């Protein structure tokens, strides 16, 4: 597939998807979302990788939704744009492989919301993160009002959304928005290294961990626990080769071969 605003490369089993609209700090507009939808629908490509890293070209990860494009929006346009973005971010969250954001610079508004739909976030020590929509008379519209409080609690999420000022990567790390800090010059390499480590684990277990975490938060604790027991039980079916290989490899003191 040919893209104008995305670049995709593969390093062995790791896919690297780069938002490539640096003149607008990779701001998200409908064309960018169309390309992202196309990318995530391309199951053939995604089947060839075991983890995906998402990053941004230039000095920003993503500086948010395209403010210029929103200037003349009608009520319907606003609703539609919000739904389009949510659809794309759900595609990220529902991907059956781990997705890691390599936050190389500004991750603001919709850019932070995209990072929040990833499973793990690594950030450059120099990155700034925030939800500045309140300064524009807007609110986060790509599920940021929902994903952020689920990640860091209502108080921290309100603080970020109401203040509308960016925070440093270190503050984001301390809040638990970011899971790992990296040197600015090596954020992508350090994220790929992490992705490679994770991609070396059982793909089936990774898929299930993601499913349990995402679906579990929608359920009450008891039902979520039942869902976990069922999936755990299923791992002991005879055709569950990864479980068999993982346990045998441990007992035979060798590395598993998934
Ligand atoms: N949209 C469009 N263009 C942008 C955006 C953006 N979000 N951010 C930066 N740009 C453009 C600038 O206009 C500028 O373009 P030009 O060269 O043509 O003037 C170029 O990128 C470079 O930016 P700056 O010159 O401003 O670079 P600085 O290093 O001086 O500043 C900042 C960097 C601090 C990141 C600054 O660009 C900035 O504040 N950007 C806006 C950040 C922001 O407010 N983001 C939130 C947007 S709203 C949002 O994301 C809502 C999501 C929910 C939508 C729901 C659907 C309805």
UniProtKB/TrEMBL annotation:
It comes from the Bacteria. SUPFAM superfamilies: ClpP/crotonase (SSF52096). PROSITE patterns: ENOYL_COA_HYDRATASE. Transmembrane segments: none annotated. Belongs to the enoyl-CoA hydratase/isomerase family. This is Enoyl-CoA hydratase-related protein. It comes from Paralabilibaculum antarcticum.
């Amino acid at each position: 597939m040919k893209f104008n605003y995305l670049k995709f490369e593969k390093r062995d089993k790791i896919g690297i998807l780069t938002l490539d609209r640096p003149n607008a700090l990779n701001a998200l507009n409908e064309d960018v979302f169309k390309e992202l939808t196309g990318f995530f629908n391309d199951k053939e490509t995604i089947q060839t990788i075991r983890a995906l890293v998402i990053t941004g070209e230039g000095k920003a990860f993503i500086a948010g939704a395209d403010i210029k494009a929103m200037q003349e929006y009608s009520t319907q346009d606003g609703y539609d744009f919000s739904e389009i973005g949510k659809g794309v971010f759900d595609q990220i969250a529902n991907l059956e492989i781990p997705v890691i954001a390599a936050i190389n610079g500004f991750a603001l508004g919709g850019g932070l919301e995209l990072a929040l739909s990833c499973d793990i976030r690594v950030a450059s020590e120099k990155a700034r993160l925030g939800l500045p929509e309140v300064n524009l008379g807007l609110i986060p519209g790509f599920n940021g009002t929902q994903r952020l409080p689920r990640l860091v609690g209502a108080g921290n999420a309100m603080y970020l959304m109401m203040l509308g000022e960016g925070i440093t990567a270190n503050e984001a790390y301390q809040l638990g928005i970011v899971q790992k800090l990296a040197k600015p010059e090596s954020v992508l390499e350090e994220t790929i290294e992490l992705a490679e480590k994770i991609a070396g684990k059982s793909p089936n277990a990774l898929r299930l961990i993601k499913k349990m975490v995402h679906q579990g938060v929608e359920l009450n604790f008891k039902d979520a626990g039942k869902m976990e027991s069922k999936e755990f039980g299923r791992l002991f079916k005879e055709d569950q080769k990864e479980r068999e290989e993982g346990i045998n490899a441990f007992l035979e003191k060798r590395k598993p071969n998934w």
